[in-house]
Write a sequence for this structure.
């Protein structure tokens, strides 16, 4: 059986009986009884960097074993896959010739294969071939392959692998983080002492370049609490180009991603996106440090962490006590938008808002008229995921009022 | 002290680094249990109360005798350290609360416990509303609770009421709770450098939702609050002391910082042995009525610092330092009455480790404050000797537990209180390895193969 067929087995495209044992579990591949080198363990185990990431795609492909007894007697000796140049080339030629490269090959797998078995020329060859295909993902992945080639690396050593070369935007897979972050832990990030200490020139360099601003107009008016990967901010930035807005996120990798995304968009579309920014902070503790009384016009809480357990309800971002603080930073007439796909949480948030004396619900007409309401379920990653899975969303949109007593 | 212990452990080969760290955290916990002695004075100086550990001692100055507390629940009134005591401004009520999760409200006429409220968490601050109808207490998780007390005449059976949540600072230890002089606002200070001014509603049991302002400016935890009355503003001015060694003055309506007084720097000039790099925390703050004077107790300062508040210009300045000579007396708590003209101080602690005496307290008083009314003779504040204190020897015997106490123990007590406060209120900065070590008991991390 030649290498190609081995690959095919791996991809599950063909069912080929391997003489000898037909493995039931991947683990049988690891322990090679023949003493030959087996696959580099990084092929099937997440690398150190990926540990703890809940969103790393799990490879559907089973690892290959290149143990001697897995090959048929028709294999020519030079097809024996070992870490020599010739075999590397052979694999590359096989891949190209059968157009297997059409299929979506996961980048990590490609990289590992190439590291172990392909030489530089083969890698470049595959890269060139990949570029011809339409799939953007294949091109991206092949691009990564290309970067492994030392001579190419030299030219590109300034290129940031985490940024997509063609669009200038960051690649999400390098910014994956755990979906849950503990809001109770005292993380150590800088917090402004008071709202007057917030450095606007850092966030909005083009619009407000002076570091010490003495003028009092042009303040942040929209705040996306728990902005995640920034989908809503991006949509709002073009919808409201005159308004300054900020996203608040607790996870630092995700904040980095949003920062890079905004910077990339600012470069790609000059003049736009200058009004959006992100800050890493614990919004449950430090909102009064960022915003003055009655500063905000809109606050967004999109798909917050549900914290299902009763004892964790206190960690929910919408709670009767925290609503006091949100009412403080919202102007009278300001609007708070919440949406979730968890029914229990939706009911909870709605009841918290309804029983709070400083909030009243918006009427149906007002909801229809507000362009932002439609964005709640469509603009963010989370929202799009829910729509894809055909889930239901529960929204609660309320207005800040002066208490009647 | 702690550092040398850890070094010892590292040199000892049988102790792994894990053990050293576990030991250190246990030590921290024990240090935190040290409770400072507290003092509070009746508004018209009818009585003085001192709390040391779980012991609440009251001396009646009108009858010149010690008071026996009457508590229907039987046994000692509090089972664990008392952390906060306060008299109501109308003089009829007294409240005490602490680590035993009980809030006890006493009537000052007959010193009977008229109400015991059970709290879910340890209590760190209490306040009584000016009209005496509500008692608020704050727990270590940041929630302020309120209990309503219909007018008591002392003959009814004690009620055990249930408290309703009033407001909350998210996950932050509340260090101090005060009502403004006009009763419109309740001010709460926490460990996250924040001071929150909330409108105290007519129906507090439904919660206090309207925040008036946040007084932001401290760069370390806020440890104590006090109000200065001003003739032209009914809500007065708020004065706060913090772990950043500053005393700040605020306008609570707008939350603006009016003035900052760098008190810590002045202490270092005076005390030669205050050589640590750590900031000296303001332990307690107390306004002396009629004088526009603020008495400040600072860690390591043997005495008190007096600040003048200049109302027209709204500034604070240091006027005088009243040192206590002859004794190692670093006050842990201050108290004053509206009419008495005296500043009362106490030093002491309970649950001291490594000492024969597990709890001790020493009371002193300062008199001779210049009244701001014209025609009053110029006086120098002077520390009263034991015989000059109202109540004299009897008071001291009751409140201190004994007449004379070994001096060395006081320094140890002051140090212990200082460490306890730091460990409780200053956020610890962990190195990465230590943080990973602390996460070892987490059970929600994905198992890596």
């Amino acid at each position: 059986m030649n290498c190609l067929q081995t690959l095919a087995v791996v991809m599950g495209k063909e069912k080929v009986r391997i003489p000898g044992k037909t493995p039931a579990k991947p683990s049988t591949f690891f322990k090679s009884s023949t003493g030959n080198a087996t696959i580099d363990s990084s092929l099937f185990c997440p690398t150190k960097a990926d540990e703890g990431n809940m969103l790393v795609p799990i490879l559907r492909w089973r690892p290959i074993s290149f143990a001697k007894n897995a090959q048929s007697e028709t294999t020519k000796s030079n097809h024996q896959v070992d870490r020599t140049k010739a075999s590397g080339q052979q694999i590359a030629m096989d891949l190209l010739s059968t157009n297997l490269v059409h299929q979506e090959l996961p980048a990590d797998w490609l990289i590992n294969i190439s590291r172990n078995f392909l030489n530089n020329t083969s890698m470049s060859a595959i890269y060139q071939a990949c570029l011809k295909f339409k799939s953007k993902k294949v091109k991206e992945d092949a691009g990564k392959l290309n970067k492994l080639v030392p001579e190419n690396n030299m030219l590109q050593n300034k290129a940031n692998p985490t940024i997509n070369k063609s669009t200038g935007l960051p690649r999400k897979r390098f910014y994956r983080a755990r979906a849950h972050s503990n809001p109770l832990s005292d993380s150590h990030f800088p917090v402004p002492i008071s709202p007057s200490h917030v450095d606007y020139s850092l966030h909005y360099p083009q619009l407000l370049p002076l570091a010490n601003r003495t003028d009092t107009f042009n303040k942040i008016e929209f705040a996306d609490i728990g902005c995640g990967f920034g989908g809503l901010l991006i949509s709002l930035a073009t919808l409201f180009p005159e308004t300054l807005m900020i996203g608040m996120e607790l996870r630092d990798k995700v904040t980095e991603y949003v920062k890079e995304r905004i910077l990339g968009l600012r470069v790609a579309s000059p003049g736009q996106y200058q009004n959006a920014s992100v800050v890493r902070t614990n919004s449950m503790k430090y909102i009064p440090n960022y915003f003055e009384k009655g500063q905000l016009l809109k606050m967004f809480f999109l798909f917050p962490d549900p914290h299902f357990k009763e004892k964790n309800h206190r960690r929910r971002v919408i709670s009767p006590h925290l609503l006091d603080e949100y009412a403080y930073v919202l102007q009278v007439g300001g609007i708070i938008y919440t949406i979730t796909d968890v029914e229990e949480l939706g009911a909870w948030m709605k009841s918290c808002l309804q029983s709070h004396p400083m909030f009243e619900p918006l009427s149906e007409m007002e909801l229809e008229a507000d362009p932002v309401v439609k964005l709640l379920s469509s603009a963010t990653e989370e929202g799009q995921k829910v729509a894809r899975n055909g889930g239901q969303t529960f929204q609660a949109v309320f207005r800040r009022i002066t208490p009647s007593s | 002290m702690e550092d040398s212990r850890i070094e010892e452990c590292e040199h000892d080969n049988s102790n792994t680094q894990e053990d050293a760290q576990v030991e250190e955290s246990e030590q921290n916990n024990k240090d935190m249990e040290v409770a400072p002695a507290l003092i509070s004075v009746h508004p018209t100086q009818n009585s003085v109360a001192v709390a040391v550990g779980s012991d609440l001692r009251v001396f009646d100055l009108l009858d010149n005798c010690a008071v026996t507390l009457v508590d229907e629940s039987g046994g000692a009134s509090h089972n664990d350290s008392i952390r906060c005591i306060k008299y109501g401004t109308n003089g009829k009520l007294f409240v005490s609360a602490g680590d035993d999760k009980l809030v006890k409200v006493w009537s000052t006429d007959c010193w009977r416990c008229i109400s015991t409220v059970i709290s879910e968490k340890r209590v760190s601050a209490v306040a009584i509303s000016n009209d005496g109808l509500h008692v608020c207490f704050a727990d270590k998780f940041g929630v302020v609770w309120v209990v309503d007390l219909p007018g008591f005449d002392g003959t009814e059976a004690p009620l055990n009421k249930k408290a309703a949540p009033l407001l909350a600072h998210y996950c932050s230890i509340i260090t101090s709770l005060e009502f403004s002089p006009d009763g419109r606002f309740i001010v709460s200070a926490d460990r996250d450098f924040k001071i929150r001014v909330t409108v105290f509603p007519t129906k507090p049991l439904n919660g206090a939702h309207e925040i008036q302002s946040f007084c932001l400016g401290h760069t370390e935890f806020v440890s104590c609050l006090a109000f200065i009355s001003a003739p032209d503003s009914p809500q007065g001015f708020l004065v706060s002391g913090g772990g950043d060694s500053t005393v700040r003055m605020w306008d609570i309506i707008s939350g603006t910082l009016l003035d900052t007084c760098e008190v810590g720097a002045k202490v270092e000039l005076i005390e030669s042995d205050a050589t640590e790099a750590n900031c000296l925390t303001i332990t307690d703050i107390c306004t002396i009525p009629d004088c526009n004077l603020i008495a400040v107790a600072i860690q390591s300062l043997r005495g008190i610092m007096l600040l003048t508040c200049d109302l027209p210009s709204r500034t604070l300045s240091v006027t005088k330092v009243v040192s206590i000579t002859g004794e190692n007396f670093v006050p842990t708590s201050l108290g004053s009455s509206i009419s008495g003209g005296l500043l009362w101080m106490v030093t002491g602690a309970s649950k001291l480790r490594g000492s024969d005496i597990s709890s001790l307290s020493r009371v002193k008083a300062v008199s001779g404050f210049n009244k701001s009314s014209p025609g009053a003779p110029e006086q120098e504040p002077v520390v009263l000797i034991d015989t000059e204190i109202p109540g004299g020897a009897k008071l001291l015997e009751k409140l201190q537990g004994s007449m004379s106490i070994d001096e060395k123990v006081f320094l140890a007590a002051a140090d212990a209180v200082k460490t306890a406060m730091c460990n409780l209120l200053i956020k610890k900065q962990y190195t990465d390895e230590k943080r990973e070590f602390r996460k070892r008991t987490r059970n929600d991390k994905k198992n890596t193969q």
The first strand of chain B starts at residue 35 and ends at 36. The two ends of chain B are 42 Å apart (CA to CA). Chain B is about 15% helix and 40% strand.
